[in-house]
Amino acid sequence: MTAQKTDRVLTCYRIGDPNGTYPIYDAEGARLYPGRWNTHNSPIIYTSEHYSTAMLEKLVHANMVLPANQHFITITIPNGISYEVFQTAAHPGWDSRNESICKAFAQAWYDEKRSALLMVPSIPARIERNILINPAHADATHITHAMPEPVWWDARLYHAG
To answer: Quick check: is 159 in a domain?
Structure first.
């Protein structure tokens, strides 16, 4: 697929601990603990196009125990940043527990520096997207983020009853 350029400013969100070992806007966690879309050799920054999707993704990966001191950042992607959209229909089985299809696709995207952004579906919210940022791509230097703000969790999201 050929990379396209954003035709408007995009906003996305990421949740983490501002006092943690790594900054919230950082790919080191993905390098150390790869996710569905990366390997140790392709550290990317996972973000979500909506605040609520970022919360849902954090809940899914927290196994019912939320880490302390969670904050969110708003990330601004300016007009003209290169992106690619992962086409689910072209990759049957992408959403299975076996993440090899996603890892292989995103590894090639990362290695070839095809774009700064890769738009992928959220597993828990299929019509929502996550936006993966390749910090090694030249366009990524134009992406900015705001200061962290606290996340206010509604206890009904992660407590039974």
So the answer is: no
> Does residue 13 lie within any of the structural domains?
yes
Q: Model confidence over 64-103: pLDDT tens digits?
A: 777 789 999 999 999 999 999 999 999 999 999 999 999 9
Contact (Cβ atoms closer than 8 angstroms) between residue 25 and residue 14: yes
Q: What is the DSSP letter of 91?
A: S
Q: Give domain status of residue 34, yes or no.
A: yes
Distance CA 148, CA 161 (A): 31
Helix (H, G, I), strand (E, B) or coil at 67: coil
Q: Is the pLDDT of residue 139 over 80?
A: yes
Domain around 32:
4-153
Instruction: With CA atoms as reference, report the closest residue to 27 among 47, 3, 5.
Output: 47
| Domain assignment present for 146 | yes
Q: Where are the alpha helices (DSSP H) in the chain?
A: 28-32, 51-62, 100-112
Report the CATH number that the domain containing residue 103 is assigned in CATH: 3.90.175
* Token output for 54: 């970022």
Q: What is the largest CA-CA distance in the chain?
A: 48
Domain count, the chain: 1
CB 39 within 8 A of CB 71: no
**Do 75 and 11 form a contact (C-beta atoms < 8 A)?**
yes
